Amino acid sequence: MFAGILINKDETGYRATLEQIDPAQLPEGDVTVAVEWSTLNYKDGLAITGQGPVVRRFPMAPGIDFAGTVSESRHPGWRAGDKVILNGWGVGETHWGGLAQQARVRGEWLTPLPAALTARQAMAIGTAGYTAMLCVLALERHGLKPGGGEILVTGAGGGVGGVAIALLAKLGYTVVASTGRPEEAAYLKNLGASAIIERAELSAPGKPLGKERWAGVVDTVGSHTLANACATTRYQGAVAACGLAQGMDFPASVAPFILRGITLYGIDSVMAPPPARLEAWERLARDLDPAKLAAMTREIALGEAIATAAQLLQGKVRGRVVVDVNR
Hints:
10 helices, alpha/beta, Quinone Oxidoreductase, Chain A, domain 1, Rossmann fold, 2 domains
């Protein structure tokens, strides 16, 4: 038996509980992993609380991320003892995930743990940090360079925002952080933000075009915030959109795209192909300051994950949360 969180939905309602699980209940897969660390992302918060239609099969072990050691493998690419990471692929949604002490998955979903990172550090990064790196890579491929203008990061107090700030600052970009928590200004500046703006400056309905300011944007929020970020991006700038904390809608016009030639990049971390994942994790191991990562990370036990998920959705959690599934 092993410990894990299970989500059930039946005539009594929707609930997440910490349980002892029989290994025979694990789903199909050709690799079994002894999970060491997991994490909590926004999507995990939605899954655990039931506030979003994330979970599609029941019962479900949530957790879209995990890091650990292969214990059994029938996949040619992995053998017992290999250190691995998993992000996305529907794990924690349609396939049992990482908020448990064991996981059984398809081998092609796994990524090798970079030698420069511990399993704990990998989960401090998690899908949030890996998504932030995909955003940075998109801005780099667009041609944006340090010294070329301000880069806006929205939802800066969250996991994606915090890692994006730390990455961009280390790479030499000038970063402006947007947050609804002004009390976090010192924390965000310590991560590397050069300036802080209030969330309210971007979150209300705005004009089709605003004053040009941003060379690039990493947006984790969506809705009016994304629309206003696009409307104030400079000529031929780029916006990387990866989140929907404010909403899935996009109440914008085509004006920034046809009058200023800006580009909107959609960032998908869930089904990104293995080469993109490898590139992102190699860059994270190289470009993310371990001290900055530690500063944005809080550790909890598996038994605390359910309560912390609710706090995350209430905006009471900053940065990254790592989950020690073995305590």
